[in-house]
Design goal:
heterodimer; A: about 120 residues; about 65% helix; B: about 950 residues; mainly alpha; two-stranded antiparallel ribbon; 40 helices
């Protein structure tokens, strides 16, 4: 660490602090926002800009000099996060419809969904 | 020609016959009888070699490390038995050609027949006691298949099972006896055993040996009190009965007694046990035989009583009696085989075996009648027939023996009584069914049997006549040869003449015949009037019922014990495992008190403590939610697992962290897939836990806390002490110079401890196959058969990929569109990651195990997002083959070292200079690691897809499935 030039140390520190602030903001968001759909947005701060800043800091502070393959981390994150997001949103939507909240939009292909839980004998 | 030929020929031909056309009666019968007859002829030519107590001995090394050799030993006695087995076998095989119906699968019959002959020849020619027991058990097993030949019949099933249980149990006792005997003598070699009779009789363990060996013999020979299986075994086809119950199976018991006669006999105990059982069976068998109505059962009980006679003779402790016993073995084989075959002809021609319905058959089948009459006369002991001679010898023995006064007086009476009974049942068999007014209500119109069906009987009856009339010329030499090895050394003086003058035995015979005829007439009159249908007095004691009761009792207790030791529910088993582990640990702690070590401790870090606080919260939460919300519990478990991963990474164990995180992913997927099939927890029922349940939960909690605390304490004690003697430095130092890799963990796995790894991947493959096999038979609980609630919530007319992700069209498909496309694009990326992990494994964190898991995860991801139909429609994964190829590769890599002259699994590192990449080192252990990778991929996929496929299967809906659901809806 000691042989590292001063400007790199300063840059890495700045990036790390920035990513910390981003993560804190997104945590506060998750905590404070009123419902699930709104709470889905703040984490995006953490895994987009937040992950980039951490990765850049890590690249700067690697002992063997800057390495490029760390970039794979934010890249793959960017690819995989939407999967989770879509699935989560979908589940939340489903549950809300099942709970019959008034303001839930109907499914695209059919009108309102009814929870159809009749006993087998009647089906 | 080698003696092994004697065993191998019928065995191999039997195997070949098993795959021959099932209905080729003539060629199969011809083959079987020609082979048997050929062996008989060959055995007869061996006569000069076994004369005068000579022995043919051939040895093949079997398990030399424990002193076991495969020894074939043919002395005069074994020779006589072999001739009987093959000779009667040939006749019965010929007879069976005509007896078996064209519809019967005769290839199975002849295959088993020859296998049985081979096993029986193995019993009589064994020169080694252990080998004898092996063949002995083989005869039990094959006789089970033969008795149950018509396996669609319930009586055949029961009879076969009973025979197997009784003789199998006896075989077990025999094995015990033989082992103790071998322990006393110091060798299992029969020659050594036969030569150390005095030592055995003087040994304190003589009584256990005797009891165990005799148990084996008595069960096999259907002696009292194990006699009941024989009459049930009559459900077998008649040729089987003729073969098994005249010359082979049941004779194995008396063979054994005669074989070990010179070793075990000569004591009071022998006299009472063997003689007592023999006398009881002799009387009981002949008594019951008088009142049987089934032809074959008459013969079965008479077989019992004749074997009792032989057993009694062997039990009398006199060499002369033993000679008589050997003589009777031969005589009985001849007349009983012919009687069974005659009974088979009668059954075959008339369609019934009921003596009450069979009368006056003489006019329809005079030849068979004449043959049966002569054979039954031989059975009754009529002069000028072979049965008379051995019976005379028996009478003489009972009269002239010395023992306690009441035995001396009682035994002749008993013998005469049994002979009277024998005359009665012989008359019922031979006279009753052929004379009198011709029967009119038979199921089939009888006519004379075919020429060659009678031929075997004719030959045997001819033997009876020749032996009966000119014994010393015909059978004398053979008897001398056979009896000499039994009595061990010197043959006693005996005379085989027909006429000995007016002696006590002759009077006994005359009394037996006259009283027998009178009794027959009386009994017949009573039976015609409908009295005496069952054996008086004895009918109350049903040995079979006792046997059934015993079996029932055994099963009941086995079930009860199983219920305690191995309950079907998982929870008690887990409780038992943990409780026992805890108990053992506490026991160990008594001798080795727990103490902390003095290792220097690392400074605590706030971040790490926080991390562990989160992990602990997750773990406790998982335990608490496991009962109430399984999904949450699984999620929390994942959290705890992640904390473990981070801990590993924190303490510089990247290998472990990498493995742990892959395992976490796979495990969580497994749990989630399994969750689908667990029954829904019905909270709506509002069940209030009873006091007992609460108590149980408290107990489980206490145990969990105790075990957990114990483990934590142990770990702490371990971690706080420094380990100067540990093997870790060894691996760290030698990984690079000797293993050729800088990653010590990987080098250890694929090189230093590669044999362990090979064992582990074998276990992994076996476990995966077991899981697969279990899941193939998986039947979900009735309430979890329906589609999940989420899928049922969608009305049928709404198209959504929730239900069928690949079948719906249009916008409905969009829901899963984004995740599916992304996951599919990620597949090659994940495979590249796996390849990367695999290739760098030898020097940096990674390796075959992790890489395999990553590949498995990549594939499972595809399953999750696209569904099994989609994935399997496009790729053929065949996880079973992955496992197989992996094991093959790993093993071959290991064996490769041997072919180059190094110990198994030695690794060699090759260095290449490759353009662009520079110096590349390439250890052969990479192939081994690749094998590991294959096995891991295969095993993981096999297990996961086996569960995933459950939702594709059509489960049969039970008709009352609605009940619990409706119950929930009602309140």
């Amino acid at each position: 660490m000691n042989e590292m030039p001063g400007w790199e140390q300063i840059a890495a520190a700045g990036l790390l602090i920035a990513s910390g602030i981003l993560v804190v903001i997104s945590s506060i968001g998750v905590l404070r926002l009123p419902d699930f759909f709104r709470r889905m947005h703040p984490p995006a701060l953490a895994y987009t800009l937040g992950s980039w800043t951490v990765t850049l800091a890590a690249m700067l502070t690697t002992e063997t000099g800057p390495v490029a393959h760390l970039l794979l981390i934010p890249l793959l994150l960017a690819i995989t996060v939407p999967v989770t997001t879509v699935l989560l949103a979908r589940v939340a939507l489903f549950r809300r419809r099942a709970a019959r909240s008034g303001d839930t939009p109907p499914p695209v292909t059919a009108p309102a969904v009814t929870l159809n839980e009749q006993p087998m004998a009647e089906r | 020609m080698s003696l092994f030929f004697l065993l191998l020929l019928p065995f191999l031909v039997g195997l070949v016959m098993a795959v021959m056309p099932t209905r080729a009666r003539t060629s199969l019968a011809g083959g079987a009888s020609l082979i048997s007859a050929g062996l008989t002829a060959w055995l007869i030519t061996l006569y000069p070699l076994v004369r005068d107590g000579q022995v043919i001995r051939q040895t093949v090394s079997w398990i030399p490390s424990i002193g076991l050799d495969l020894i074939l030993r043919l002395d005069g006695f074994a020779w006589m038995f072999s001739v009987l087995i093959t000779g009667i076998g040939a006749l019965v095989a010929l007879y069976a050609r005509y007896y078996m119906s064209p519809a019967d699968p005769v290839s199975r019959f002849y295959a088993l027949f020859l296998l049985f002959m081979s096993a029986m020849l193995g019993v009589v020619t064994s020169g080694n006691l252990i080998q004898l027991v092996v063949f002995w058990e083989l005869t039990s097993l094959i006789s089970f298949l033969l008795i149950g030949y018509w396996h669609h019949r319930v009586d055949a099933q029961r009879g076969a099972r009973m025979a197997l249980i009784v003789t199998g149990a006896g075989g077990l006792a025999l094995l015990g006896g033989v082992i103790v005997l071998g322990h006393i003598v110091g060798s299992f070699d029969l020659d050594v055993v036969l030569g150390s009779g005095d030592r055995v009789r003087a040994h304190p363990l003589y009584a256990p040996v005797l009891i165990l060996v005799v148990l084996g013999a008595l069960t096999k020979s259907a002696q009292f009190p194990f006699h009941f299986w024989l009459s049930r075994a009559m459900a077998a086809p008649t040729p089987v009965s003729a073969f098994l119950h005249s010359a082979t199976m049941v004779k194995a018991g008396v063979f054994l007694l005669a074989r070990l006669w010179s070793v075990l006999s000569g004591t009071e105990l022998w006299f009472w046990v063997v003689g007592g059982a023999g006398a009881a069976t002799l009387l009981l068998g002949s008594y019951i035989a008088m009142f049987q109505h089934d032809l074959k059962r008459v013969l079965a009980y008479s077989t019992m009583s004749h074997l009792g006679l032989i057993t009694l003779l062997l039990g009398l402790n006199s060499p002369l009696a033993a000679v008589a016993g050997v003589f009777h073995i031969m005589n009985h084989a001849a007349f009983k085989a012919s009687l069974f075959m005659a009974a088979g002809i009668v059954d075959h021609e008339t369609g019934t075996r009921d003596i009450r319905r069979l009368t006056g058959l003489w006019s329809r089948m005079p030849y068979t009648g004449a043959l049966a009459l002569v054979a039954s006369a031989a059975m009754a002991g009529v002069p000028l027939l072979n049965g008379f001679l051995s019976k005379e010898m028996f009478f003489a023995e009972t009269v002239f023996m010395t023992s306690q006064p009441w035995v001396e007086r009682g035994l002749p009476v008993l013998a005469t009584l049994a002979a009277i009974f024998a005359v009665v049942y012989s008359l019922r068999f031979g006279y009753g069914i052929f004379f009198g007014s011709p029967a009119t209500d038979l199921p089939r119109e009888p006519e004379e049997a075919p020429r060659w069906m009678r031929a075997p009987i004719e030959l045997l009856v001819l033997c009876c006549l020749i032996v009966g009339m000119a014994p010393s010329v015909s059978i004398g030499p053979a008897l001398a040869v056979a009896a000499l090895p039994v009595v061990g050394g010197v043959l006693p003086e005996y005379s085989l003449a027909v006429w000995h003058g007016f002696t006590a035995p002759l009077y006994m015979s005359l009394i037996a015949i006259t009283v027998g005829i009178a009794a027959y007439v009386r009994i017949r009159r009573h039976q015609r009037r409908g009295h005496l249908q069952n054996a008086p007095v004895i009918e109350r004691f049903n040995a079979r019922r006792l046997f059934d009761l015993g079996l029932l009792w055994l099963t009941l207790w086995a079930r009860r014990i199983l219920k305690v030791l191995s309950p079907a529910r998982l929870q008690p088993q887990m409780f038992a495992i943990i409780a026992i582990a805890l108990l053992l640990a506490l026991l160990a702690a008594r001798d080795l008190p727990l103490a902390w070590g003095e290792r220097e401790q690392l400074p605590a870090s706030a971040a790490f403590v926080l991390l562990w606080a989160i992990g602990m919260a997750c773990a406790i939460g998982a335990a608490m939610m496991a009962k109430f919300h399984r999904l949450v519990a699984i999620t929390l478990m994942g959290g705890a697992g992640l904390v473990t991963c981070l801990t590993f990474a924190w303490f510089s164990a990247p290998d472990l962290a990498l493995t742990q995180i892959s395992v976490e992913v796979v495990t969580t997927t497994l749990f989630l897939l399994g969750l689908r099939w667990l029954p829904v927890r019905l909270e709506e029922l509002g069940v209030v836990a009873s006091a007992r349940t609460r108590l149980r939960r408290a107990r489980d909690l206490l145990l969990a806390i105790a075990a957990g605390t114990g483990l934590a304490t142990l770990s702490y004690a371990m971690l706080t002490r420094s380990a100067p003697q540990s093997i870790s430095p060894f691996f760290l130092e030698r990984a690079l110079p000797e293993g050729g890799g800088t990653n010590a963990v990987n080098v250890m796995l694929v090189d230093f401890r590669a044999l362990d790894t090979l064992g582990e991947i074998t276990v992994l493959g076996a476990v995966a196959l077991t899981v697969y096999a279990l899941l193939r038979r998986f039947r979900p609980a009735a309430e979890s058969m329906l589609a999940p609630r989420q899928q049922r919530a969608v009305p049928a007319d709404v198209g959504t990929d929730l239900v069928g992700p690949t079948t719906v069209e249009g916008v409905a498909r969009g829901y899963m569109g984004v995740p599916t496309v992304i996951a599919r694009l990620l597949l090659p990326v994940m495979l590249v990651v796996a390849a990367h992990l695999f290739l760098r494994g030898h020097n940096q964190p990674g390796g075959g195990f992790v890489a395999g898991l990553v590949i498995a995860i990549a594939m499972i991801t595809q399953y999750i997002v696209s569904g099994s139909r989609f994935v399997e429609g496009r790729t053929r994964l065949l996880p079973g083959r992955w496992v197989a190829w992996g094991l093959l590769l790993a093993t071959c890599t290991g064996l490769g070292a041997i072919t180059l002259g190094y110990p198994l699994l030695t690794s060699h590192t090759a260095h290449f200079a490759v353009p662009l990449l520079g110096d590349v080192h390439f250890p052969t252990a990479t192939f081994f690691d690749l094998g590991v990778l294959f096995v891991v991929v295969g095993a993981t996929l096999l297990m996961l897809t086996a569960i995933a496929h459950q939702s594709l299967r059509a489960h049969r809906q039970p008709s009352v499935v609605a009940a619990p659901v409706a119950h929930v809806e009602a309140p």
